[in-house]
Amino acid sequence: MSHSGAFLYDAPGPRARRRILLGSVVSALVLAGLLALALAQFASHGQLDADRWTPFLDWPIWSYLLVGLRGTALAAALVAVLAGAFGVLLAIGRLSRNRPVRWLATGYIEVARTLPVLLLIYLMLFGLPAYGINLPVLWKLVVPLTIANAAVVAEIVRAGVLALPRGQTEAALSLGIRRGQAMRFVVLPQALRHVTPSLITQLVSLIKDTSLGYVVAFTELLYRAQVLSAYNRLLIQTFLVVALVYLVFNGALSYLAARLRTRVRRQVAPPSAPAEQAADRELETPVAR
Amino acid sequence: MTAVIENLDPLLRALGTTALILVVSAAGSLVLGVLVTVARVSPIPVLRGAAWAYVQVFVNIPLLALLLLAVFALPDAGLLMPLLTTVIVVLVVYEAAYVAEAVRSGINTVAPGQVEAARALGLRLSQTLRYVVVPQAVRAVVQPLGNVMIALLMNTALAATVGVVELTSAVNKVNLVEAQPIPIFTAAGLTYMALALAIGLGAGRIEKKVAIHR
């Protein structure tokens, strides 16, 4: 009884335990019924036939999909590095005491957060070539994703900086360190450690976004799945398998983020003031799409 | 700018489609998300596990993969709905996972004393959840829910990839004919920004109205 909802009820007595057991049985039956219904629907259209699934036990298909996975990893790594660096700069800019810099960073973040990535991708694909700007496919995916993700990273980092006690900056300044140095050596390292879970969650989100490579015809996992399914005509199986691959990889990252989150909370947050709790809540909110 | 004005009619119709997808999916995902959260904090382990799995699936699989699966693959299993309905259903189940995450972090802010007081008054668990916990949890996360709704607005654009003529798709089509990307895409960008701003401001106002001052 240590899950997050445990405080909602007393330790169950004999009657409550009976009711919980009944509820478990009923909900298990309902869920199993739904699953059976779905399987029956699939089976009646021959989608469960062994020969529609066995191809996915063959190495060639996996090596074909793994090339796509490599493309996904490449695009995600590029976006993560570029958006990470750009995002930290934007966060510093938005916190700067220089008004034009602050306005510029704020304006960028607010605009980039409210533009659909697909719109930017269409602009890259069909808009900019008219002006002689025609990037390689990889960059047609990476540039829009970087534009969007940098803004989100900036907001995560900013939340981390704001959640840090002011005393940190003040102590650094009182030691005679310059403002920029205080940010670089005192505030940012702590803030970044504090928001690592949120940054990993954002990494999951951007890995999911690389599936837009499907639109620009960049060789990543989903695009490969599309090409493969056009060839083997096993649409359901191919897309389910690829969804499972995404689930395994992103699920592992999400699990890591959740683990880190409980650890960070235990380290930095003793039973704290409401303001700090609010800041914590801010950090936990899923900003990701 | 003339390119936009000359094509105002199809663009406005597409904007209407975007708004329709947005409103219906928003309402659906809010309801489903709260239900998933309730399942996730329920005393019944099976429901808790199912809700957890639900959130994991939809937070970790790309929306585009789900859209392609639902629109192009599931008809092979005889599951065929009108295109717009399919897209809305996918958006609802996808975004509900994020709503559930947000509302769950809101439930953690409800003071245990509230639950104890409700129990002392003789409320059953379902009543405690319905009248005490969920209302306070949702009020605590209005702003995060607003962010989820803005993300939903961004995600409605993905409907273009499966052939729904919503704003992004219409803008692209108009541009392919008129070849004036700068004014056309700027207009579309400004429209999305205005919608997102409206959601953000709306969330801010609602939050001010329903916030619990402790």
Q: How is the secondary structure organized here?
A:
The complex is a heterodimer of chains A (289) and B (214).
Chain A: H1 14-44, H2 50-53, H3 59-95, H4 99-113, H5 117-127, H6 137-163, H7 167-174, H8 179-209, H9 213-216, H10 221-232, H11 235-268, H12 274-284
Helix pairs in contact in A: 3-4, 3-6, 3-8, 3-10, 4-6, 5-6, 6-8, 6-12, 7-8, 8-11, 10-11
Chain B: H1 2-6, H2 8-40, H3 45-60, H4 63-73, H5 83-107, H6 112-120, H7 125-140, H8 142-156, H9 167-178, H10 181-210
> Runs of chain B with pLDDT <50, length 5+?
none
Q: According to CATH, what is the topology of chain A?
A: MetI-like fold
- Estimate nothing, just give the exact number of structural domains of chain B: 1
N to C succession of SSEs of chain B: HHHHHHHHHH
Broad shape of chain A: flat
Strand proportion of chain A, as a percent range, falls in under 5%
What fraction, in percent, of the residue positions of chain B are helical? over 70%
Number of separate helices of chain B: 10
- Please give the number of β-strands of chain A: 0
What is the level-2 CATH architecture name of chain A? Orthogonal Bundle
Which stretches of chain A are poorly predicted, pLDDT < 50 over at least 5 residues?
A: 270-279, 284-289
Largest sheet of chain A: none
Total strand segments of chain B: 0
CATH H-level superfamily of chain B: MetI-like
